[in-house]
Amino acid sequence: MNLSTSESLAFNRSVASSVEVSYCDLQTFSVWYRSVHGYLSILVCVFGSIANILNICVLSRREMRSPTNAILTGLAFADLLVMIEYIPFSCHVYFDPDARFTATYFRYGWAVYIAFHAVFTQVCHFISICLTVILAVWRYIIITQPKQNSEWCNDRRTKLIIVLTYLSCPLVCLPLFVSLKITEQVKYVNEEGRIIPQIELENYSEDKTEVTLYVLDYGNFKDISFWVYGVVIKLVPCILLTILSQRIISTLLETKRRRRNLLGTNKINMKTAGSDNIVKVSRQSKEQPADRTTRMLLAVLLLFLITEFPQAILGLLSVSIGTQFENQCYRPLGKETFYFMHVKNRSGLKNPTKETDFCLLAS
């Protein structure tokens, strides 16, 4: 019996959906990395908190106040919130691997905290991303519009944008909060409070107690939250920073070319003016502090893109391909590995001289 074209396509889709496709084989890596992630994350969070506190103390001093430093202070404060909040989460989830097999691990209070952690870290992270984009925009204006930048990037406008960023980012992340829900699961525990696996219940003859476990899961808006996470929070800032970085690099190269041509002309005109003038011209030919500052900013933006862009791609592929890709690729990487990269990127440890860089960026 021949099937019509539409029936054939429907049949092929049903067969394809029932076949288990292997996209990634990362379970072994995920199990190994999970065993060390807790200790690494605590180490990074402690030193990162100290680094961000020092950033705030240095950049908020009266003699250091400027629009650029105001953005860096807001950035350091958002990063500090991520560091401090992640410490109790990491202690609860990673320091006692056997605890997840007990009923106390799935108490309602901890489920609420995990939901708060999931939303709070994304809000603070998105604030940090937005301030990074604003910092790049400010730097682009400074190097391309040296006469108007004091008016366009003044203190009042900078502080207003920082406040609006802190107020608007939670609203953008609202779908992430709506997509989460706490579900109840009825399980049995033994006398020691350990959860009895479902396959052992039929032959289990010892005393057991019925308990209710509270587990955080996705609700009806899972796809929307993934689109917001993958596109709005990750992909769009990466695209903006890529464009800004390209513009800044082009402007730097053009400025360097003009300076080289100008200094070459000056040297020719001053050959007969004496050695003192030649020394002055050679000093001017050295790299300007503003160029070094912009190049360090570009290094920070590049590290940001390396950290964030893969997460955006994985998030989009999880929505486009489906649950199998999410479970095989996104969760083994995104749950611990990318989160550690994110925490490290926000901790100030991505550059051992970040304290110096921040002070130079302010110049």
Automatic annotation (TrEMBL):
What the entry lists under Gene3D superfamilies is as follows: Rhodopsin 7-helix transmembrane proteins
Q: Which residues cross the membrane?
A: 36-58, 70-90, 110-138, 159-178, 226-249, 296-321
Please give the chief subcellular localization of this protein: membrane
Compartment annotation: Membrane
Record's keyword annotation contains Transport: no
Alphabetized UniProt keyword annotations: Membrane, Transmembrane, Transmembrane helix
One GO molecular-function entry = G protein-coupled peptide receptor activity
Q: Name one Pfam family in it.
A: 7TM_GPCR_Srw
Q: Which domain of life is it from?
A: Eukaryota
Concerning InterPro entries, the annotation shows: 7TM_GPCR_serpentine_rcpt_Srw, GPCR_Dmsr-1, GPCR_Rhodpsn, GPCR_Rhodpsn_7TM
Recorded coiled-coil stretches: none
GO cellular component terms listed in the entry, alphabetical order: plasma membrane
Which residues belong to any copy of the G-protein coupled receptors family 1 profile domain?
51-318
Q: Which SUPFAM superfamilies match?
A: Family A G protein-coupled receptor-like
Family to which this protein belongs: Belongs to the G-protein coupled receptor 1 family.
Q: What is this protein called?
A: G-protein coupled receptors family 1 profile domain-containing protein
Origin species: Photinus pyralis (Common eastern firefly)
